[in-house]
Every structure is written in C-alpha cells, then in structure tokens.
C-alpha cells in the first residue's frame, strides 16, 4: 500500500496529523508534512505504508477536508 500527499492542496487543518504520526505539522508553512516521503512532483509526495499503519493511513486520508491525501493498494487501485 502507498500514500500520496498533495502539499499544494493542503490547507493546514492538520486532521491527518491527529490520525497518523507519519504526518507532522509545519507551522511556518501552514501545511502538513508526510515524513519519509519521496517527491513525485513539485508538491506531490509519496511513500509506502507499513502494514501495521494501513488503518491509520486510511483514516488520515479520510480526515482530510480537501482530499489532499490518497491511498492506493498494491495493484495501484485508489482505495481512499
């Protein structure tokens, strides 16, 4: 499973931070940060989700009010 985070879309509500510790607050930018993510594009970051964090990653994506977070299964299908 992998997660993609669009930092440009993020509005800094930080619900994702409350749901999964892989997200941290960047108070200076007013945006969340996806820890250990690799940049895919300028503002799009991606990382693998550990098996023991899959539920937390899904909750983080569902909690985002602007859909800046997407979760994909191992086949590349978007599940959140």
From TrEMBL:
One Gene Ontology MF term: iron-sulfur cluster binding
Keywords, comma-separated and alphabetical: Electron transport, Iron, Iron-sulfur, Metal-binding, Transport
InterPro entries according to UniProt: Fe-S_cluster_ET
Pfam family, one: Fer4_15
Top-rank taxon, per record: Archaea
SUPFAM superfamilies according to UniProt: 4Fe-4S ferredoxins
Protein's name in the database: Ferredoxin
Species whose genome carries this gene: Halolamina pelagica
